[in-house]
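Dear colleagues,

I hope this message finds you well. In preparation for our joint manuscript, I am sending the AAA family ATPase (Lacinutrix neustonica) sequence together with its predicted structure, so that both groups work from identical material. I would be grateful if you could confirm receipt.
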Amino acid sequence: MKLKKHIRDTFNILLQVLDEGHLTDNKGRVADFKNTIIIMTSNMGSRIIQERFDAIKDVETAMESAKVDVLGLLKQTVRPEFLNRIDDTILFTPLTKENIKEIVGLQLKGITKMIEQQGITFDATP
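The corresponding structure tokens are as follows:
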């Protein structure tokens, strides 16, 4: 139950920012958000998106199918007064195995370079 209270408190703080364009802390200091773009992320609905991509091979069809259900889940989960203040919702396609391999390769390249500077040899194979 503590977690739900923290989530509710966080939403209330964000509502103040979205409504009034500023945030006041417990010491009375004000942070201006009037010329700010706020980007919020969540993994809510990620399972739905992954299921659609596993079942439907056409990317656009899978995204359209997932978007309907994910937006429905958002409406069930997030309070309307919060959702009504969000301009747009963007769904991202899941990473493919090739995407993941590329990311891992880039990370390994950086790690290898860093530890080689310390005189350590590192070799990784897929």
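For the figure legend, we might mention the following. The CA atoms of residues 53 and 59 lie 7 Å apart. The chain has a mean pLDDT of 89.

With kind regards,
E.M.
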